[in-house]
Amino acid sequence: MKAVVVREFGAPEVLKIEEVPVPTPGPTQVLVRVKAIGVNPVETYIRTASYVKKPNLPYTPGTDAAGVVEAVGANVTSVKAGDRVYTHGTVSGSYAEATICEETQVHALASRLSFAQGAAVGVPYGTAWRALFLKAQARPGDTVFIHGASGGVGVAAVQIARASGLRVIGTAGSDKGIALVREQGAHEVLNHRDPDYLAKVLPLTGGRGADVILEMLTNVNLDKDFDILALRGRLIAIGNRGRIEIDPGKLMTKDGILLGMRMFNATPEDHRVIHSAVVAGLEAGMLNPVVGREMPLGDAPKAHVAVLEPGAYGKIVLNP
Ligand code: NAP
């Protein structure tokens, strides 16, 4: 089968297609025939060895895919050959024509969704659900400010929050991104390239501020986020690309809670809870992943450039 194999850390061009053997699932594992692959920004950080975790070389990137179960190990009971699934995590890497996952890493993909949409679920919806409910303890009636709502995690967060009875204010940095966030159900959308956009948040919340802030670019926004956080609000740092100076007094004045998260710290129980909810939302039609761009697997280097460019519009998906 074809797979992307990285033999040295570096520029996008280190993502090279090779012919490799189809892996065999172990007793607790599942072999998934991959139909579509989700590209996440973290895969670019890993490729350049700038992430906190580094894989051993060579490796095949990727955690998110959708496809059809081809074979299961002897101890696997929750899925069988022929089932449509999406993955959140893999053992052998998802940038390939087939991937090995632990049974706990595959989840039912409702027939109403395309494989491309399924590839857009794992990390984005897992992250958004964990941030909203396991971290921020969001409740119906809360206002959530999603700082960066036009990308993979942001779109997921808007849909999940809206379906859960929260008031949603989202931001995007382009006209098409703003339209997208509005279409996903955000009550208000602001442009994070407008110099005065944060001044609009307090008037939009009757002066209270946001009960929950999901932050996709913490190194740019954190200090200013304290100004729009409600009393006893929860701010979740999801994305970060550098350092920032903050005034902790502003957080103290709000009795605010600042929480960081990395999906790789989620426990098996977290994953069970998160994906039980996500699978149900997908089946019920409340969650609808948005695929902005599809590219062939051989264009993985171009996808890694595109996923870091401004003007996010849902997910970039590779087709094997
Ligand atoms: P993405 O699809 O590339 O989306 C990035 C989002 O950030 C877009 O909405 C983009 O808007 C927005 N953005 C750009 N400049 C911004 C600014 N100044 N203020 C606020 N938002 C801004 O990425 P993603 O998959 O949604 O992931 C978002 C971030 O979270 C990435 O940094 C990713 O690495 C990280 N992440 C972390 C975890 C974790 O476990 N902690 C999990 C998943 C993702 P425009 O392009 O419209 O400007």
Task: List the keywords.
Quinone Oxidoreductase, Chain A, domain 1, Rossmann fold, six-stranded parallel sheet, 10 helices, 27% strand, binds NADP nicotinamide-adenine-dinucleotide phosphate
| Structure class | alpha/beta
What is the number of helical segments per DSSP (H or I, 4+ residues)?
A: 10
Uncertain residue ranges: none
- Looking at this structure, what is the CATH superfamily of the largest domain? Medium-chain alcohol dehydrogenases, catalytic domain
Mean pLDDT equals 98
Number of domains: 2
Query: Whole-Å distance between the termini?
Result: 10 Å
The sequence of SSEs as H and E is: EEEHEEEEHHEHEHEHEHEHEHEHE
Q: What is the CATH top level name of the largest domain?
A: Alpha Beta
Helix coverage percent: 25-40%
3D structure, described in words:
The protein starts with a strand and ends with a strand. It has helices at residues 42-47, 115-119, 122-135, 152-163, 175-183, 201-204, 218-225, 248-253, 268-284, 300-306, and strands at residues 2-5, 16-19, 29-39, 64-72, 84-88, 98-102, 106-108, 143-147, 167-172, 188-191, 210-215, 229-237, 257-260, 291-296, 315-319. Helix content is 28%, strand content 27%. Helix 3 (122-135) crosses helix 4 (152-163) and helix 3 crosses helix 9 (268-284). Bound molecules: NADP nicotinamide-adenine-dinucleotide phosphate. Residues 40-42, 123-124, 127, 147-154, 171-174, 177, 192, 216-217, 220-221, 238-239, 261-263, 307, 310-312 line the site of NADP nicotinamide-adenine-dinucleotide phosphate.
